[in-house]
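Please predict the structure of the following assembly.
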Amino acid sequence: AQSVTQLGSHVSVSEGALVLLRCNYSSSVPPYLFWYVQYPNQGLQLLLKYTSAATLVKGINGFEAEFKKSETSFHLTKPSAHMRDAAEYFCAVNSGGYQKVTFGTGTKLQVIP
Amino acid sequence: DSGVTQTPKHLITATGQRVTLRCSPRSGDLSVYWYQQSLDQGLQFLIQYYNGEERAKGNILERFSAQQFPDLHSELNLSSLELGDSALYFCASSVEPADTGELFFGEGSRLTVL
């Protein structure tokens, strides 16, 4: 069985501040991990993905995430928040098999000017 | 633009009614997934089809059904609608077999049941 836990349903940061969104996963096999972003009134789009090639993954819009097996974590970071980063972020895990992706409950990021 | 098309974008109907949501996957994608997003339940996986066959089933109610047609488009049928079925329904597609499971989402169909 696979699962994802996102800590904090809402996160607020000031513009220019560090963004840290937390994600912990559970998987019986080495997983594929994803971060998706959902802007208001839009569908989800892929931000970045971990597929075991490198533990530090860089994505679009300056985001990156680090896979830490010992901590079963895949936290999303961005050094400096921008107003356009305000959105909901979903962590997701896929342990393979029939490619059923399990999503976390999402974290809404608010960026304060 | 993800390449996944969903219609209708908005739908308002009454309790007890039946609606059909349609999804056209990205060109070349054989897998289609349906998700329900609501404020209280978050993003819930409903069902997956691969090349016309049901591949995986999640938290899909018996009142709901889906199918994928030979041209790979998919339809999600929701019947005997209840107020609690009001939600955003997303379709996603992916290449299969895929090594990463990356999904491409449509913009969703917002269903309001009055």
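The first strand of chain A starts at residue 3 and ends at 7. Residues 85 and 111 of chain A are 7 Å apart (CA to CA).
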